[in-house]
Amino acid sequence: MPLKPKTIEKIYWTIGEVADEIGVNTSSIRFWEKEFGTISPKRTNRGDRLYTRKEIDQLRTIQHLVKEKGYTLSGAKTQLRRPDPAETPVLDVEHCATAC
Fold first, then answer.
1. Looking at residue 4, what is its pLDDT?
2. Which of 8, 14, 85 is closest to 43 using CA atoms?
């Protein structure tokens, strides 16, 4: 019986990988880290940032609110503090293609 191929999910991503994945500059990520204060990546001995999937999702939400929805930083912070994350608007690409 053939062995099943192992699928190993990464635990940490570098700032460059995160920037490529969400489509922003690394400087934006560093700025949002300071500005929002909710993202604190692990650091290597050299000081390189390492992000978890949860932190990447938070950055993706910030990117969506600021870059796509046009929120100010203050408005994005307010949205992120909402008690129910389902209340945070999410871009519906299919709907937007026909209605936007």
1. 72
2. 14
Sign of CA dihedral 9, 51, 24, 70: positive
CB distance 88 to 61 below 8 Å: yes
The residue range of the domain holding 28 is 13-99
Residue spans of the chain under pLDDT 50: 88, 92-100
Residue 10: helix, strand or coil by DSSP?
Answer: coil
Q: What is the pLDDT of residue 9?
A: 81
Q: Is 7 part of any domain? A: no
Looking at residue 97, its pLDDT comes to 45
Q: HSE-up of 1 (CA within 13 Å, CB side)?
A: 1
10 Å CB burial of residue 94 (0-12, 13-18, 19+) is: exposed
The total number of structural domains that make up the chain: 1
